[in-house]
């Protein structure tokens, strides 16, 4: 029987369906206005970092460029002028943090890795203060491997654990009597995709479907569940192990949504009601809305005059990226959702050319960069260029976190995306189909419709920073907010600089337009009646979890890929010593004067002494300096500050070991005061692993003694609750990448040039013409890889990889 269908496809806000038009228009108008209001109050910023390479060694420098965008068109953001870039350990301790200045959403910087940095997996993270209003899972996050100059060995693992297998019905649920797609996602114990095959059976052991995963443990099958039936999925892993899982139970009433995203230019949408729903809700009204990046791109209203609703939608309606379809009931209740990825051809057409594909060592090479939009129009944009030798620096093209896959895909999804560049490197029918299955298995919830429609979404807590700022709360000693409190900020760097302000009704205060250089501030708070019985609590950037290294979970073994790189760096260190290098003889000190540590002596002999603290600022924090030098001690960051734990206490008192006691000039200090100390404040540090009983007050058995430079007038006194000190490192001033020139013969030319990053330039500008850049090759032969990433003034993204040989 041929089913008739009454529906309306809305090209504009209004529709003209008899008896349904006014209600239609009212709901759609309210929904569009609510989303516009929400999006206006909560614009989304995204950050992408382009790195010079994927793997590093201790002593290397990480070079990067930040692109901060906003809106559905990914325009360069003018919301924030400051971004925060962090290097973290696998256990969330911050090794380095910088405030990066942004100009129209663009900034660049570098991180010098300590030569004594422990090898392993680290995380690079980037975000703006405004982004802190959203879930930290949306921060930029990328795992990097830092290898070992002494031993780089791959660990073999015998994985036999039961895989984690999940099932995702299209539209959110299975409906009895309605055919639906079910996506499958299988993960091994490291969180990586594990391929398998499966057989679906009912409770009478009848076979109803079978499947094989298509890509990285993901696949799909179709099923028409029957009333009264339960289903199991019997899987067989590649190693022959077999397991059984229950399929989600089907519902008797509801809708099945099917979206066909295989066509390059259009989407086919089919919505089918269950028999029971069609019988009881015949002629009821429903709405289908599709939004991308907070903007509604498609609306349709239809009645249940037939059991199914079908439509074809032109993909030109949508921007490239994730689109979220939602089916609403007439009362505004969201019923089903389906997320799709739209791959329109909006990327920039980039072209890199040179004189030839073959070059010589130390030869100057010149390149031209040409950028056009999809319609072949010249454009203006900002780009970054990295050049490495592929033979010595590991490259995993499919796993690379690029400006395309990050800003269009991974930045909008909380879950980990394995091999994100697979879906963008060579787009085919297969990659499109695999990407659609990926969308079926991933969550996309920038907001909840119910909260938006009820206008009950949370108001932003963190301000968009136009400059450096210090913010926080004034509270009573029992934690209640102090409204109308008086707050003063003072620094004496480069003369006296003082500001004052008043807290709002929640006790909140902020100081903006602070000096860009590093400075130490004193912040004092009083009540509106000048009473001192208050405390200052600053907003902190600490305390975010790494959400399991969202862009590289588990132990994907890239350390072994660094073996050639390790040999290259080791050779570079060995050969870089020249004739002017002098090996000093050992000097024996016969006598010494009293030092601060003699004054604050303790009964036990120290297990470790650190006395090479710099007297001048180096840009390194005290916690980072100690973290790479303390033996058998782990540093952990929290919202309160940095704490230290010995391996012994971690093993004995896991999962809640007591932190080490930290003493400054003989007085116990807490993590907050420790975090306020400068590296240059400290003369020396000693570690005592006591053999006595545990301190019952602090729970600590081990002690870290810090001795300040009292003789230089920089001793720190513990803060009182109403007066605190805060050290700002200021806005980071990026260093310039050194690229040697061999135009003229000089003495330095005799040293081997074994650069691992051949060239880095974050300041390439294409202004409706060809941009040029040039550099000299290193001494290493091999395949040189030129990677260009960037964005134009309209938010169009581009990336290109160019290879040439050095012989």
Provide a descriptive summary of the structure in words.
It is built from 11 helices and 46 strands. The protein has 807 residues and is mainly beta. The strands form 12 sheets. Strands 1-21-20-23-24 form a 5-stranded antiparallel beta sheet. It has a 5-stranded mixed beta sheet with strand order 3-10-9-6-7. Strand 36 (633-638) and strand 37 (641-646) form a beta hairpin. The longest helix has 21 residues, at 21-41.
Outline of the structure:
The chain is 11% helix and 38% strand. The protein is mainly beta and 807 residues long.
Helix content bin: 10-25%
- CATH topology of the domain at 596-718: the name is Ferric Hydroxamate Uptake Protein, Chain A, domain 1
Report the biggest beta sheet as strand number plus sense, adding barrel if it closes.
5 strands, antiparallel
- State the CATH class of the domain at 596-718: Mainly Beta
Distance between the termini: 72 Å
Work out the number of β strands: 46
| Named CATH architecture of the domain at 596-718 | Beta Complex
The radius of gyration over CA amounts to: 30 Å
Low-confidence stretches: 1-20, 149-155, 547-551, 554-560, 575-603, 691-700, 711-718
- Strands side by side in the biggest sheet: 1-21-20-23-24
Q: Count of DSSP helices? A: 11
Share of residues in strands:
35-45%
Class based on secondary structure composition and strand pairing: mainly beta
Mean pLDDT: 83
What general outline do the C-alpha atoms trace?
A: globular
């Amino acid at each position: 029987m041929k089913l008739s269908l009454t529906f309306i496809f809305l090209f504009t806000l209004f529709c003209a369906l008899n008896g349904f038009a006014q209600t239609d228009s009212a709901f759609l108008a309210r929904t569009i206005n609510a989303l516009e209001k929400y999006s206006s109050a909560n614009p989304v910023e995204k950050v992408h970092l382009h790195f010079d390479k994927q793997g590093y060694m201790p002593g290397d420098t990480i070079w990067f460029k930040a692109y901060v965008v906003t809106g559905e068109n990914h325009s360069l953001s003018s919301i924030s002028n400051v971004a925060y870039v962090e290097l973290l350990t696998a256990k969330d301790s911050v090794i380095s943090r910088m405030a990066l200045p942004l100009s129209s959403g663009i900034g660049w910087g570098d991180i010098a890795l300590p030569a004594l940095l422990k090898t392993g997996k680290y995380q690079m993270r980037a975000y703006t203060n405004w982004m802190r209003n959203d879930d930290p899972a949306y921060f930029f996050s990328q795992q990097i491997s830092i290898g070992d100059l002494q031993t780089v060995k791959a660990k073999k693992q015998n994985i036999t654990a039961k895989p984690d297998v999940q099932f995702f019905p299209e539209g959110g649920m299975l409906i009895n009597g309605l055919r639906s797609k079910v996506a499958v996602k299988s993960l091994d114990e490291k969180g990586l995709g594990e391929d398998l095959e499966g057989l679906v059976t009912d409770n009478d052991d009848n076979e109803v479907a079978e499947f094989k995963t298509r890509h990285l443990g993901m696949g799909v099958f179709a099923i028409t569940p029957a009333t009264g039936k339960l289903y199991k999925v019997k899987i067989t892993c590649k190693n022959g192990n077999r397991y059984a899982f229950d399929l989600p139970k089907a519902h008797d009433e509801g809708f099945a949504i099917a979206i066909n995203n295989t066509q390059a230019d259009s989407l086919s949408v089919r919505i089918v009601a269950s028999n029971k729903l069609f019988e009881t809700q015949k002629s009821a009204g429903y709405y289908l809305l599709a939004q991308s990046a907070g903007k509604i791109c498609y609306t349709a209203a239809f009645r249940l005059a037939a059991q199914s609703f079908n439509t074809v939608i032109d993909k030109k309606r949508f921007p490239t990226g994730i689109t979220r379809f939602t089916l609403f009931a007439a009362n505004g209740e969201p019923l089903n959702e389906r997320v799709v990825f739209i791959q329109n051809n909006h990327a920039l057409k980039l072209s890199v050319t040179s004189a030839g594909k073959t070059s010589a060592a130390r030869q100057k090479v010149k390149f031209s960069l040409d950028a056009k939009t999809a319609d072949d129009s010249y454009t203006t944009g900002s780009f970054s260029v990295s050049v490495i030798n592929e033979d010595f620096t590991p490259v995993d093209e499919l796993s690379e976190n690029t400006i395309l896959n990050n800003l269009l895909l991974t930045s909008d999804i909380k879950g980990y995306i394995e091999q994100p560049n697979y879906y963008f490197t060579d787009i085919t029918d297969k990659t499109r189909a695999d990407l659609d299955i990926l969308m079926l298995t991933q969550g996309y919830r920038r907001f909840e419709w119910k909260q938006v429609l009820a206008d009950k979404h949370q108001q932003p807590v963190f301000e968009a920073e136009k400059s450096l700022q210090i913010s926080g709360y004034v509270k009573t000693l029992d934690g209640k907010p102090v409204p109308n409190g008086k707050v003063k900020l003072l620094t004496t760097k480069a003369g006296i600089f003082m500001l004052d302000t008043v807290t709002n009704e929640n006790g909140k205060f902020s100081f903006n337009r602070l000096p860009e250089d590093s400075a130490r501030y004193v912040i004092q708070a009083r009540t509106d009646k000048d009473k001192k019985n208050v405390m200052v609590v600053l907003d902190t950037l600490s305390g975010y979890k790494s959400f399991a290294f969202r862009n590289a979970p588990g132990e994907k073994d890239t350390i072994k890929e660094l073996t050639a790189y390790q040999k290259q760096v080791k050779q570079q260190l060995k050969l870089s010593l020249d004739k002017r290098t002098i090996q000093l003889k050992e000097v024996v000190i016969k006598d010494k004067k009293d030092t601060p540590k003699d004054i604050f002596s303790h009964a036990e002999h120290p297990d470790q002494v650190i006395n090479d603290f710099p007297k001048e600022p180096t840009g390194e924090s005290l916690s980072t300096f100690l973290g790479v030098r303390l033996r058998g001690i782990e540093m952990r960051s929290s919202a309160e500050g940095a704490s230290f734990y010995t391996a012994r206490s971690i093993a004995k008192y896991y999962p809640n070991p007591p932190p080490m006691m930290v003493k400054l000039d003989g007085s116990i200090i807490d993590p907050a005061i420790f975090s306020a100390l400068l590296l240059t404040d400290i003369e020396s540090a000693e570690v005592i692993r006591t053999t006595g009983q545990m301190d019952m007050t602090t729970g600590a058995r081990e002690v870290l003694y810090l001795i300040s430079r009292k003789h230089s007038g920089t001793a720190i006194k513990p803060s009182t609750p109403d007066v605190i000190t805060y050290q700002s490192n200021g806005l980071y001033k990026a260093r310039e990448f050194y690229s040697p020139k061999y135009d003229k013969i000089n003495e330095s030319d005799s040293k081997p040039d074994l650069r691992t990053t051949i060239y880095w330039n974050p300041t390439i500008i294409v202004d409706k013409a060809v941009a040029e850049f040039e550099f000299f090759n290193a001494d290493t032969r091999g395949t040189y890889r030129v990677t260009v990433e960037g964005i134009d003034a309209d938010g169009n993204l581009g990336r290109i990889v160019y290879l040439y040989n050095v012989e």
